[in-house]
Design a protein that fits this description.
Elements (H helix, E strand, L loop, with lengths): L1 H11 L9 H41 L12 E2 L15 E5 L22 E2 L2 H7 L8 E5 L2 E7 L5 E7 L4 H14 L10 E7 L2 E7 L6 H6 L10 H20 L5 E2 L8 E3 L5 E3 L6 E2 L6 E2 L2 E4 L6 H6 L1 E2 L1 H17 L10 H4 L1 H10 L17 H14 L10 H9 L5 H11 L7 H6 L15
Parallel strand pairs: 1-2, 3-7
Antiparallel strand pairs: 2-14, 4-5, 5-6, 6-8, 7-8, 9-12, 10-11, 13-15
Helix pairs in contact: 6-8, 6-12, 8-11
The protein binds adenosine-5'-triphosphate (ATP).
Adenosine-5'-triphosphate binds next to strand 4, strand 6 and strand 8.
Length: about 450
């Protein structure tokens, strides 16, 4: 009794904070603490349930005929030249070398009439098209935001990429993307049909490609026999090469994609390849390489010189294309930690197998009908040339198109190389084919368009 009696005057004492009594302050403090706690708990629960429903939606949406791939996108922060080797951290490389000064953060403010190449959509139009961005219309989610399927008022089907707008970085990428790809049209590229920039919202509206992406078909559950036959795989490789050749050689200024990978190769029902996601593309002045202010790409596909120096030109895309072609041949991911250590890195395993003349064992076991040895050798040689450590020795994308299509490649060009550059050993034909000492550059006709 004596104790509580003594504490009462202390509680009723006035404090120096706005002359409030001590007990009032205690009550205010407790109320704030309880509110913060409640808000935190509510936020966590909401977050969890929205993530869960998004996952369910993704499964629902693509469970038809397109296989699912479980994706964990993790950012890898690169310090200096060392790429983090932690397996858990290797899905995505995103290295900030220094803040870009060339790209303005201002929102574009076009009018529907003046953008020329497409349309500026209002938020309302895109809300209507996507059922208010309903979960049922989610196609998937990438590093830049959620992609929705939408039907415009004229009945055309589109993919609406709702960019994460709360990051300055996404705004910059948005502007780069719009300006770089707005006017680009090619049968092997996913066309941008418009965009929306309203308030804080930033959205890109693309043509809809209806048969999933290459990553899903290569690494999803397709059963014991892949629907991607050898011929289909080569068709996808050639189509991708044509799309990239157009970006590199058919535009002025040229465009380097910067994130060539299997999830960015969309497929239609006839297995035509459509290269998507120009979010990382950057316009380049012709004839010069370009030191970019940011290095971006996906781990496993990034060329060594691009990863370490930020030196960017189209040969970085050629390297990534080489990895993609390896992926098509082998059905393996560029980095796969579920494999034995010697096979985790696709490039190392691939080179080792070729060096020990076991090239035919590289073939994806899910391919039922084997390609001809000539066709396989041609593809293997193209891979090796694309991943040449000397970026200057890598072929151009237009040349790659011809190499992949030419019936007599590598045999004719290899013959020329041998005649001109070195005395052939008596080694077997495959060794000669796969290891020319210098790359012959046959004269290619520019027919890749
Ligand atoms: N035009 C399109 N038509 C149909 N599906 C698309 C289209 N664009 C993207 N998608 C699908 O939406 C999903 C997300 O694509 P997005 O390009 O945003 O990410 P990603 O390529 O998976 O990853 P990242 O952002 O790292 O490139 C993928 O499943 C992709 O196949």
């Amino acid at each position: 009794m004596a104790t509580s009696g003594a504490s009462l005057p202390l509680l009723t004492n006035r404090t120096s904070i706005a002359g409030l009594k001590f007990y009032v302050l205690v009550i205010i403090f407790l109320a704030i603490a309880v509110s913060i706690l409640l808000i935190t708990v509510l936020c966590i629960r909401r977050n969890r349930s929205s993530k869960k429903s998004q996952m369910q939606v993704k499964v629902k949406h693509s469970s038809g005929t397109i296989p699912l791939v479980s994706k964990e996108i993790v950012e890898v922060i690169k310090i200096g030249n060392v790429i983090d080797d932690d397996p858990k951290m290797q899905k995505q490389v995103e290295c900030e070398i220094e803040e870009s000064s060339s790209v303005s953060v201002e929102s574009p403010s076009p009018s529907p009439e003046n953008i020329g190449w497409g349309r500026w959509y209002t938020l309302k139009e895109l809300e209507n098209a996507t059922g208010r961005f309903s979960d049922g219309n989610v196609i998937g989610e990438g590093g830049y935001g959620i992609v929705y399927r939408g039907i415009l008022q004229d009945g055309s089907v589109v993919a609406v990429k709702n960019l994460l707008n709360n990051k300055g970085q996404a705004e910059k990428e948005f502007k780069v993307e719009v300006e770089a790809i707005g006017k680009v049209r090619h049968k092997n590229l996913v066309g941008l049909v418009g965009y929306c920039a309203e308030g804080a919202q930033r959205m890109l509206v693309y043509e809809y490609v209806d048969n999933g992406n290459l990553e899903q078909w290569l690494h999803g559950d397709v059963g014991p026999i892949s629907p991607l036959t050898w011929d289909i795989r080569m068709k996808i490789a050639v189509g991708t090469a044509k799309g990239l050749a157009y970006l590199h050689e058919g535009l002025e200024p040229k465009v380097v994609h910067r994130d060539v990978k299997s999830s960015n190769i969309l497929l239609d029902k006839k297995w035509n390849a459509r290269v998507s996601d120009f979010g990382l593309a950057k316009l380049l002045g012709s004839g010069k390489s370009y030191v970019t202010t940011r290095v971006m790409g996906t781990f496993g596909y990034v060329s060594p010189e691009y990863a370490s120096t930020g030196m960017l030109n189209e040969s970085s895309d050629v390297y990534s294309f080489g990895i993609l072609l390896m992926e098509l041949i082998t059905g393996r991911s560029p980095i796969d930690y579920s494999r034995p250590p010697a096979e985790m890195n696709l490039v190392d395993w691939f080179k080792g197998m070729v060096a020990s003349r076991r090239g035919d064992e590289l073939l994806d076991p899910l391919i039922e009908i084997q390609p001809s040895p000539r066709s396989l050798k041609r593809a293997l040689l193209v891979c090796l040339r694309c991943i040449d450590l000397d970026a200057n020795k890598r072929p151009k994308m237009g040349q790659i198109v011809h190499m992949l299509e030419a019936d007599d490649f590598p045999f004719r060009s290899d013959l020329r190389t041998r005649e001109k550059d070195y005395v052939p050993s008596q080694a077997d034909e495959s060794k000669k084919v796969l290891y020319p000492t210098r790359h012959a550059e046959p004269v290619y006709k520019a027919s890749w368009r």
